[in-house]
Amino acid sequence: MKDDQDTKETGPDLSKVVKIQADIPNGECGSAPPTRIYKRRWVIVLLFSTYSLSNAYQWIQYGIISNIIMKFYNVDGFAVDWLSMIYMLAYIPFIFPVTWLLEKLGLRFTALVANALNCAGTWIKVASARPDLFWVTLLGQSASAVAQVFILGIPSSLASVWFGAEEVSTACSIGVFGNQ
Question: Helices 134-152 and 41-59 sit at what angle, rounded to 10 degrees?
């Protein structure tokens, strides 16, 4: 009875629990090394925000001048609306493969593919500046839409890789803000 009272007054002995938690291995590699923080991490998150911004403005660039696009390409408003809807439609089939690629091949690969697709989509749209090439515009917009799927998955991974525990939420919010 006395042991039960001592436990109630002082609480259970947690020294063994804390020790077990401190020795949790990182797979077969042993304990996880501390995150190394570089000064250039802020430049990295700002670069990411910049190319995220360059992709986000392409999403609605045709929608804000839809009357001009309709006249130039001689298409109806629904066709112009598809230029922005393709972004949302591309997200559905590509989010799972892109997430898998981010996890398996890493942040650098994913960021490079996102930038390459975004750049290709932009140049394809530049090449579509003729009234009979609306389908080329849709093709370029589709490439940029796939790039967006890559870009939207990056902020949390970028923040966790480049930033310490006390800066992760700030870095993630800056990365997400770039797309806004």
Answer: 150
Give the separation between CA 19 and CA 108, rounded to whole angstroms: 36
Give me the amino acid identity at 73.
Answer: Y
Binned at pLDDT 50, 70 and 90, residue 166 comes out as confident
Percentage of residues in the chain with pLDDT exceeding 70? 80
**How does pLDDT run across 71-85, given as a tens digit for each residue?**
999 999 999 999 999
What is the rounded end-to-end Cα distance, in angstroms, of the chain? Answer: 63
Can you tell me the mean pLDDT for 39-61? 88
- Residues 163, 37: contact at Cβ < 8 Å? yes
Please tell me the distance from the alpha carbon of residue 55 to that of residue 149, in angstroms, as a whole number.
10
Q: Environment class of residue 99 by beta-carbon count within 10 Å: exposed (0-12), middle (13-18) or buried (19+)?
A: middle
Q: How far apart are CA 178 and CA 46, in angstroms?
A: 8
Contact 158, 48 (CB under 8 A): yes
Contact 142, 121 (CB under 8 A): yes
Residue with tokens 């112009």: 80
Q: Between the CA of residue 1 and those of 5, 7, 59, what are the distances in Å?
A: 7, 10, 71
- Which among 165, 162, 150 has a CA at the least distance from the CA of 46? 162
